[in-house]
Amino acid sequence: MTYAVKRNRSRPPDTLTPADLAVEALTWRGVNRGWIGLGERGKMTLMTNVPGEAPPPSARSTTQFGARAVLAAIALALVAIPGALTLLLVKDKWTPLLRADNGARDRLHDFAVTHTGFVGAMQLISDSGSAVAWQIVLAVVVVWLLWRRLPRLALFVVTTAAGSSLLNSVVKSAVHRLRPVLTHPVAQEPGSSFPSGHAQAAVVGYAVLLLVFLPILHGVWRRVAATFAVLMILAIGFSRIALGVHYVSDVIGGYVLGAAWVAAMAAVFNAMRVDRGHRSVDVGEGLEPEQAARLAGRTPDDGELDHSQ
After folding, report:
1. Which residues form the domain of 271?
2. Are residues 8 and 73 in the same domain?
3. How many domains does the chain have?
4. By mean pLDDT, which of 12-16, 92-96, 208-212 is the weakest?
5. Residue 187 to residue 239: CA distance in whole angstroms
6. DSSP for 172-235?
7. Which residues pair with 298 in a beta bridge?
8. Are 19 and 80 members of one domain?
9. 142 lies in the same domain as 73
10. Is the pLDDT of residue 80 over 70?
11. pLDDT over 70 at 111, yes or no
12. Quick check: is 232 in a domain?
């Protein structure tokens, strides 16, 4: 829609009122900015779509694509840089790290071969962080989330866990580090050593559980859950060293790679929330704090704001 506006050039400048001068100033500003188009016979067209107020769809799409590209680069850096630094120290045989690897391997192995109860306890802890154990736990979580009509959280669990497993396999194939060689091993594991798949899976698995269920954990229960997760992550990593199937640096590499991967995936999920028009959240709140009712198994009240779909 357009409007015709006439400019009065017949009156001398000294006879113009303040109102006339204001109209002239606004008109000149509108012509310069493209709000008003000059027509024939002194008529001007008032543009209803003011440039700058709402960019065209193509401009918005370009901006969103640029933001996603930057986010993808940041996520890649979160994963690549810490992992590359740890790998560099391992490949370069950094003396303090090499000393820690060999010292922990020898001392723990000497203790393990004379204490069968210790070996049994370490094996039990290690098995609790195996790939099969995590597949069962996370499958139950995904089914629960889908039943509670939270498909995006379910997708986050699946992609984060599956992506971490794939990333671990790729890095192991690229590095191809041999496992510790011991005279009387108390445990045997196939495949390469760096990074520890158990350590990486522990970080990713417990972090995913916390990010999903933090909205329904409050006060002391939130601290208990976080403390339990940290202790289990440390225990699983220690068990892999104690059983003689990993070096200290393997476990550290798994921790670093797992934490970087979860951070990248959480950043992507948060950006997707913002892109859908929701507010950005802090990881301390969980991924979707507004879904506390659904996560707890309750049906949201009619007046409760639901951002699930």
Report:
1. 63-295
2. no
3. 2
4. 12-16
5. 11
6. HHHH-PPPPP-SS-S----S--SS-HHHHHHHHHHHHHHHHHGGG--THHHHHHHHHHHHHHHH
7. none
8. no
9. yes
10. no
11. yes
12. yes
